[in-house]
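$ ./design --mode recover --in tokens.txt
reading tokens...
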């Protein structure tokens, strides 16, 4: 059984417990972020996950607890022509935050091992080489004393379908769903295999992957906050 298959996707956090736990972890995160800022140290949080897994909502629960000077959210989509003309890691190094800042990557260099691999934007040699390139880059950060934590938000296919349909039916959320999302869903087995190999090949003691059972958004947000606090601690 793979790591993803071993997750208990039925886990839930009762709504009556959510507000209390959310505030507790946010308060502690705020205190630690202030200390981090004074020490001019860096922390890197990486968010990846299946489409509609709730990355944006989880990131919002982190940033809403922080002074804006303590963090920077770095969202990434497809590379620009200028970025494609350079090494794929360049655009991530190029936006590295100032000392004392928490860098929150909303999607990341792991696109080389996920969408670029599955959709054929990277050759087999390129994505296989990326395992050692990424591990080397992250090791250089942790050797500098930078803490790195990576979050994979996982939902099952049934939950993803519900969220896709809800987005299509909502005037406020319909922009979030595209034909590309539906095409990616058809390649679920290929993406799942790529994710499993990514987790196995790039989770290290100093830059670990944390698997988040995200069928229940409340549970996922609190778990991520708890792990974020542990990372800063």
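writing sequence...
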């Amino acid at each position: 059984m793979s790591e993803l298959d071993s997750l208990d996707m039925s886990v839930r956090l009762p709504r009556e417990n959510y507000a209390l736990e959310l505030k507790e972890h946010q308060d502690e995160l705020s205190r630690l972020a202030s200390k981090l800022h004074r020490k001019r140290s860096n922390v890197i949080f990486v968010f990846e996950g299946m489409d509609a897994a709730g990355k944006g909502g989880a990131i919002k629960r982190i940033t809403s607890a922080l002074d804006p000077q303590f963090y920077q959210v770095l969202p990434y989509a497809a590379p620009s022509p200028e970025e494609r003309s350079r090494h794929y890691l360049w655009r991530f190094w190029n936006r590295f935050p100032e000392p004392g800042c928490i860098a929150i990557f909303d999607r990341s260099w792991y696109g080389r091992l996920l969408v670029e691999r599955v959709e054929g934007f990277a050759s087999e040699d390129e994505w296989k080489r990326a395992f050692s390139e990424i591990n080397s880059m992250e090791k250089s950060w942790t050797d500098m004393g930078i803490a790195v934590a990576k979050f994979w938000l996982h939902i099952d296919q049934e939950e993803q379908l519900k969220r896709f349909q809800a987005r299509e039916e909502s005037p406020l959320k319909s922009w979030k769903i595209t034909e590309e999302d539906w095409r990616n869903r058809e390649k679920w087995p290929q993406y799942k295999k790529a994710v499993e190999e990514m987790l196995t090949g790039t989770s290290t003691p100093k830059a670990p992957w944390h698997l988040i059972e995200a069928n229940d958004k409340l549970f996922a947000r609190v778990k991520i906050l708890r792990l974020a606090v542990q990372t800063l601690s």
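exit 0
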